[in-house]
């Protein structure tokens, strides 16, 4: 029996090998054609119309791209096949396949037999034979959709779906699904064979590396609906851990590019919560043939020239993420003009008379200028004009003319005279300096400056050490509504002391959203006075000499260069499509930042409220609604957990039930028979973690993730030193979106911040802290959601290590996770 089974399998593999050989032969033919064309092109240099030459070049280019992609030896260039009944009509699409989804009437005879009318092979790119019959259909083409969508309940024309596993040019195996088991179908007079035992399970069981793989050969029907959803408006996708949200989002990017390359090339932004998740997913799009077409960026790298490397304490993160910060920064952008040494008088000579504006008059002018709504840097010309007005007024010259024409002429002369004075220009530079986002952010490290911007009465003597007084011109006066508590001001100012006065220094992910806000509030620096078409002196030299090394001293100054780069880099804000992963964790300020990049975009937003680490998501929901605007929404839900075996999912569901009572968990599709292991620390925590990590390394071939409370990150790295690169230590918030073959969750109570009293009493934990509390969706439940994330990272094995705080029972089961 086994031998017979093997021979069916071998025969089917041989058949697919035969087809794959044909595909490669055809590709080689195309490559030869391209090479011939290239050779011919060089011989006949300029012969042919420009259009024909361009077309030929394009063909050569396309063949080259195919060749390159093939040479990279995709593990499974060709991965699928469907055998189809005749369609309801005989129309063919552009890929050469019949377009009909439903079978023709009578396709299945009354005796249950049928003939296969069409066999399609599905792969990473489409290949047509010389006579235009499709040898391989691109997985994103409409004709490939039934490969993913057909189910036994709604099989359409599909009788058999086959997943083909190959490496390079060799077919290794085939796995079949019969979608119409009741039909006896014949192909070329022979009954359709069925072999294999489930491609999906084989894919899910494989050991993980540190990079996510594409799921192109096993996309499931509910996922395919999301991937191929029309790009109109906003596509919102919710689903529990492991339901493929990240995978689906990336495949959707590849699909949209295939659908409308002209619209989307270079214009798709994928926003990921952490750089770890970016590097984990970075290979997926290239493996789908979309290299460099999509910008995959971490939230902390969305602003050009900024890269978040520092962490904020959670209570600081919460303030920095709050929408109140928009208002604080608005005020700060304006008061930043007062930071540092600001001249308090202006003296000029006009019409041979000295004219002077004193501190009070200058303050008055500044107030008038700031009465406008334009970004501060763009107000510089207005500041210049208002200063000239004030000087003119002060000089009394206007009163000498009754004839308005003469007065206007005199005023023009007056303005020219003053503007030509170096002193006036120097004054303007100091009085209305060009502000950069980094400098303004750094100015808020001065507690008094931040307090003023936040409307908090300033206390004496609480300025940034080593900085000129924080009292400023306005003394302790504050303007407007109170936006922060005093403790918040102290904590945020303190966190910004990582930055130097010039704003250089490590930024946190939350600082980056603030920089983006300031970028908009400050605006680009004003245009230089010379007309834009006029070249700069350096450009003139360059044009004359052809040497671009010639630079001005200012160009060579690294600080000036950096600041210019920061100011001049035009941030891309016109993405055609924005994909947001782990959307439940964006703060309001981050939504504002991401929203700016998709003002005219269509969106795909994926997330899971049950994994949110914020206690109160109401403000973030409002900011999300603002970012997405009035566009219509289309909602999808993913319901199957492909990551965790049922044994692990079952334990994680206990944390979910505490965190989000009543929320339905996703269904786990596989079971390994391996129950989670519980153990309690005896002796030293570090030694216990190291022992358990070693044990896990011995049990799995792939990766091991050790998840600890955020404050233990550094020590956990030390505990694991020397165990090799299969094992990594992660703070619970860093574990978002990642997965490991085995995970070790260290002290659930510490991660959840539930302390000794079980789920009800908060002792900090890794939720982004805030007001609220048990029963109000406060930090205790947010902490449990963070624990839920930690418990859902394993693909094979999970160990829970309890400390004292966890109150483990005799079996090592922590109080929090007991039945
Ligand atoms: N159709 C599929 N075929 C094979 N593997 C799949 C499929 N769908 C998802 N997976 C795998 O399941 C795992 C989880 O997918 P993914 O990380 O995209 O889930 P997620 O919903 O983003 O999870 P989380 O919310 O926990 O971040 C990944 O290893 C992914 O490759």
TrEMBL record:
Residues 218-645 form the UvrD-like helicase ATP-binding domain. SUPFAM superfamilies: P-loop containing nucleoside triphosphate hydrolases. Residues 754-763, 770-779 have a biased composition (Gly residues). Residues 455-486, 547-571, 751-779 are annotated as: Disordered. It comes from the Bacteria. Keywords: ATP-binding, Helicase, Hydrolase, Nucleotide-binding. InterPro entries: DNA_helicase_UvrD/REP, P-loop_NTPase, UvrD-like_ATP-bd. ATP binds at residues 239-246. Pfam families: UvrD-helicase. Residues 474-486, 554-571 have a biased composition (Basic and acidic residues). The keyword Transcription regulation does not apply. PANTHER family: DNA 3'-5' HELICASE, UVRD / RECB / PCRA DNA HELICASE FAMILY MEMBER. This is UvrD-helicase domain-containing protein. It comes from Streptomyces marispadix.
């Amino acid at each position: 029996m086994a031998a017979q089974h093997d021979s069916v399998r071998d025969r089917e593999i041989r058949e697919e090998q035969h087809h794959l050989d044909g595909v490669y032969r055809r590709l080689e033919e195309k490559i030869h054609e391209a090479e011939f064309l290239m050779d011919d092109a060089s011989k006949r240099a300029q012969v042919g119309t420009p259009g024909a030459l361009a077309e030929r070049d394009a063909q050569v280019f396309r063949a080259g791209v195919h060749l390159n992609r093939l040479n990279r030896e995709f593990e499974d260039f060709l991965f699928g096949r469907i055998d189809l009944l005749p369609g309801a009509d005989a129309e063919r699409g552009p890929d050469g396949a019949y377009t009909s989804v439903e079978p023709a009437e009578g396709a299945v005879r009354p005796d249950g037999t049928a003939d296969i009318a069409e066999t399609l092979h599905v792969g990473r790119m489409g290949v047509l034979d010389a006579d235009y019959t499709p040898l391989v259909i691109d997985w994103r083409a409409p004709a490939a959709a039934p490969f993913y969508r057909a189910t036994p309940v709604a099989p359409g024309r599909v009788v058999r779906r086959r997943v083909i596993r190959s490496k390079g040019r060799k077919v290794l195996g085939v796995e079949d699904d019969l979608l119409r088991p009741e039909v006896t179908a014949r192909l070329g007079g022979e009954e359709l064979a069925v072999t294999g035992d489930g491609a999906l399970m084989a894919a899910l069981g494989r050991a993980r590396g540190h990079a996510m793989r594409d799921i192109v050969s096993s996309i499931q029907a509910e996922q395919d609906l999301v991937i191929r959803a029309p790009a109109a408006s906003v596509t919102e996708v919710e689903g529990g851990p492991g339901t493929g949200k990240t995978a689906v989002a990336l495949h959707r990017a590849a699909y949209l590019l295939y659908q409308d390359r002209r619209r989307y090339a270079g214009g798709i932004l994928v926003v990921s919560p952490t750089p770890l998740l970016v590097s984990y997913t970075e290979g997926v799009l290239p493996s789908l043939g979309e290299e460099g077409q999509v910008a995959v960026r971490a939230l902390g790298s969305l602003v050009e020239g900024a890269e978040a490397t520092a962490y904020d304490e959670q209570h600081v993160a919460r303030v920095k993420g709050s929408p109140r910060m928009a208002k604080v920064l608005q005020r700060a952008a304006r008061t930043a003009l007062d930071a540092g040494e600001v001249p308090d008088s202006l003296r000029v000579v006009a019409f041979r008379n000295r004219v002077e504006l004193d501190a009070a008059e200058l303050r008055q002018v500044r107030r008038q200028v700031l009465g406008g709504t334009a970004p501060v840097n763009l107000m510089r010309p207005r500041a210049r004009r208002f200063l000239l007005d004030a000087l003119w007024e002060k000089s009394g010259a206007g009163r000498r003319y009754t004839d308005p024409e003469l007065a206007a002429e005199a005023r023009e002369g007056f303005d020219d005279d003053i503007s030509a004075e170096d002193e006036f220009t120097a004054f303007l530079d100091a009085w209305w300096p060009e502000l950069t986002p980094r400098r303004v952010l750094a100015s808020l490290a001065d507690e008094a400056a931040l307090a003023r911007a936040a409307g908090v009465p300033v206390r004496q003597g609480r300025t940034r050490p080593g900085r000129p007084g924080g009292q400023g011109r306005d003394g302790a006066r504050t303007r407007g509504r109170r936006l922060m508590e005093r403790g918040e001001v102290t904590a945020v100012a303190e966190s910004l002391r990582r930055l130097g006065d010039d704003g250089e220094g490590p930024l946190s992910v939350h600082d980056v959203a603030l920089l983006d806000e300031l970028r908009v509030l400050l605006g680009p620096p004003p245009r230089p006075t010379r007309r834009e078409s006029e070249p700069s002196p350096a450009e003139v030299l360059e044009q004359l000499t052809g040497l671009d090394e010639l630079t001005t001293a200012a160009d060579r100054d690294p600080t000036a260069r950096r600041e210019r780069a920061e100011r001049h880099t035009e941030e891309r804000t016109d993405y055609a499509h924005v994909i947001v992963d782990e959307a439940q964790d964006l703060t309001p300020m981050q939504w504002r930042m991401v929203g700016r990049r998709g003002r005219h975009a269509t969106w795909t937003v994926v997330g899971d409220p049950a994994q949110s680490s914020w206690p109160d998501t109401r403000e973030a929901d409002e900011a999300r609604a603002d970012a997405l605007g009035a566009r219509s929404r289309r909602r999808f839900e993913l319901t199957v957990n492909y990551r965790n075996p049922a044994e692990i999912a079952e334990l994680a569901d206990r944390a979910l039930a505490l965190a989000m009572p009543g929320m339905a968990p996703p269904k786990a599709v596989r079971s390994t028979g391996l129950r989670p292991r519980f153990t309690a620390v005896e002796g030293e925590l570090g030694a216990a973690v190291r022992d358990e990590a070693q044990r896990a390394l011995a049990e799995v071939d792939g990766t091991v993730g050790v998840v600890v409370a955020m404050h233990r990150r550094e020590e956990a790295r030390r505990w694991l030193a020397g165990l090799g690169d299969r094992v990594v230590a992660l703070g619970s918030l860093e574990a978002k979106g990642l997965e490991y073959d085995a995970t070790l969750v260290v002290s659930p109570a510490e991660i959840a911040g539930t302390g000794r009293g079980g789920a009800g009493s908060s002792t900090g934990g890794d939720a982004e802290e805030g007001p609220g509390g048990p029963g109000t969706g406060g930090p205790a439940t947010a902490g449990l959601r963070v624990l839920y994330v930690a418990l859902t990272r394993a693909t094979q094995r999970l160990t829970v290590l309890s400390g004292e705080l966890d109150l483990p029972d005799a079996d090592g089961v922590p109080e929090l996770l007991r039945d």
